[in-house]
Hints:
The structure holds two protein chains of two kinds.
Chain A: H1 5-19, H2 23-49, H3 64-88, H4 98-119, H5 128-131, H6 138-170, H7 177-186, H8 194-227, H9 239-265, H10 274-305, H11 308-318, H12 324-343, H13 350-377, H14 388-391, H15 397-420, H16 432-438
Helix pairs in contact in A: 2-15, 3-4, 3-8, 3-9, 3-13, 4-6, 4-15, 6-7, 6-8, 8-9, 9-10, 9-13, 10-12, 10-13, 12-13
Chain B: H1 2-36, H2 40-45, E1 63-72, E2 76-87, E3 90-93, E4 98-105, E5 108-116, E6 122-128, E7 139-146, E8 155-162, E9 164-173, E10 176-185, E11 192-193, E12 198-203, E13 210-216, E14 222-227, E15 239-248, E16 252-260, H3 284-313
Parallel strand pairs in B: 1-16
Antiparallel strand pairs in B: 1-2, 2-3, 2-6, 4-5, 4-7, 7-8, 9-10, 10-11, 10-14, 12-13, 12-15, 15-16
Amino acid sequence: xxxxxYQQQAFDYQRPNIEKFSKRNWFWIIFYLLWIIAGGYAxxxxxxxxxxxxxxxxxxxxxxxxxxxxxxxxLSYAGAIIxxxxxxxxxxxxxxxVRIAQMMTIISVIVGPVFxxxxxxxxxxxxxxxxxxRIQSPMTWDVMAVLTFFVxxxxxxxxxxxxxxAVYRDANLKIPKWRQKIxxxxxxxxxxxxxxxxxxxISQNLLALIMIPLSIIVASILSxxxxxxxxxxxxxxxxxxxxxxxxxxxxxxVLIVAMWVYRRMYKLDKxxxxxxxxxxxxxxxxxxxxYGYFTFSEYFTHWFxxxxxxxxxxxxxxxxxxxxxxTLFANLFGILLPILIVAIPATRKVNLITAAAFIMVIxxxxxxxxxxxxxxxxxxxxxxxxxxxxxxxxxxxxxWVLTGAGIATFFLFFxxxxxxxxxxxxxxxxxxxxxxxxxxxHQPAPKKEEVNPA
Amino acid sequence: MxxxxxxxxxxxxxxxxGMLLLLGSYNSSFAQExxxxxxxxxxxxxxxxxxxxxxxxxxxxxxxxxxxxxxxGDNSIDLKVGMRAKVKGQxxxxxxxxxxxxxxANEEEIPxxxxxxxxxxxxxxxxxxDSLKTDAEGKLQFKVVFAGNKAMESAxxxxxxxxxxxxxxxVKEDSLLTVQVKLIDxxxxxxxxxxxxxxxxxxxxxxxxxxxxxxxxDENGEGSVEFPNNLPGDAKGNLTLLARLDENETFGxxxxxxxxxxxxxxSDKPEAQPRALWSxxxxxxxxxxxxxxxxxVWGHYIVxxxxxxxLRKEQPNAPTHATNS
Lengths: 454, 325
């Protein structure tokens, strides 16, 4: 594979990252593995003793697992939309960050559905979803949608790295033979011939074109699991776009945080410049405004309508004795904070934008909890002689440990992928180079613009 | 100085609270001891010979037997038993209890057989009527006995009724359906019509019988009720008609049944469901949309994978350049 000087420079700079694991890498990998082992023990307890070890009961049948599923799968959809748009519109500044977006897509689509499997009570009947599907059920739509999306995400990621795999194959990397072989097989004999470039570009364009609407549809289908149900707080016509914007918003936040971590971890200030953070900050601001608008519209409509069960739910969400403080946190730190940080020029700095994005991501996780649990706790029929724990949900330690294990898996995959594939796509910078040449402000990181890792 | 005073007063408060807590726990521990060991003063006032109430032998459970009979149209008699007992203030059904049945005739008890009560504490014993002989008054007397066990006392119950016969005759004249009943006293061996007695006409349904009307017998012991022609029946339109005399002072319970094709046939097989959101057949538009969407996406995937395979085919013979660091 032939590389131009700028690509070669980018590859040489990242070469050590994929050639060896540092001590710090190993430390984090072991730390994540310990979490996963603890999760394995919690899973063993859940299998041996049944779902009674979780806080889920007759009424509140969904808890942390479904919150995590929605959170992670949302990140995946967001990654696909962002990567697809950056590719299709050939956004020059987006070239270096497209790989992280694609990594987020594929890692999240692996981690997210695992939580569904953890939540399923009758695992032995899982195949019924495929053998006896009910086309009218949003559950069936979601299963089909997630599977279809998963295949698309794998293809999308794979096609995006083929050129880089060819680079690694030809680069005489100091890596074990088996890795060399895998690079050789997966590169599919790509040598950069004109016909090969054309075929790859057609495939990539075609897939990017389908992944964007597919992500929007599957995110909407996920929302319809709730929206199609006659329950207070769920039965809403705006749930489709609400979930799409929510997914994009939290995805944007994770992208900023991941970019910041990689920038520090591999000293990639040259490629993940301050401008990337600011531009993504602007996108985050726009999405925060959109998400805030949807949230206000949703709460306001339910409050104004004063329907009995809606009113009860709104009361529950806003009263300090129940979920009031969480609602305040989710909206204040999940919506207002990122807007203020990015809108005020004095705070529009890399670290502050990242901090706002990080807090926003946590707030968005809490927001998912507030969408699911309080609604399930608002029973439509009066409950008599029922134990409190059957109406009120409280997550148990196995649920928290499994949640931690899921997050650890997410981080573990991010660490591992960055050890096998360069975080900044080498060949992806191909088209960007002339642009960088013509526009001095896009030159590969002049020294004065570099931001030292804090 | 004020701050110091405040801190000191807080410390004093904490100390006081701690002492109160200690005192509380000390008292409560004594209170627990009090309940297990009565104080010495109490023992002097209570006579030592008098055993405490808890040490009394537990009394045996006294079961109660509900004993009824049904004289049936096929000349047999159902002897029905329901056993229950009051335990800790609540009635419970006594299941798996052996109850023995006897006919009592001329102060002689003829054993008929036994039954074990079911989960609801009930048992039904069917006696063929042909072999039974009435007493001088034309009555039959039966006895049911529960022998008792380690936990329960024995129990017995009697029932006595006059021998009778209830007949049900379905009559169809043109489109008019009528159910005729005939009530006859056969206690003395002769057939004597029973007049001015109300007999209920029912149709057997899934759970309890549904009452259609009530026939009052005339001097011939006969009565009739018009029967509706729009009741849903089984797949062949069959209905089970019942004539019932309930809790009669003389005859007890009597029942006669007949099956007639007087109902509207209702298939027991599920009907073909329409295409709807609720049925097992999805609406056509939904199915088509689903298939089209899936085909569109997976079709793209197939094209893309095909394009990827072509990459390898179109590989130049020799590598162009290899990048080295």
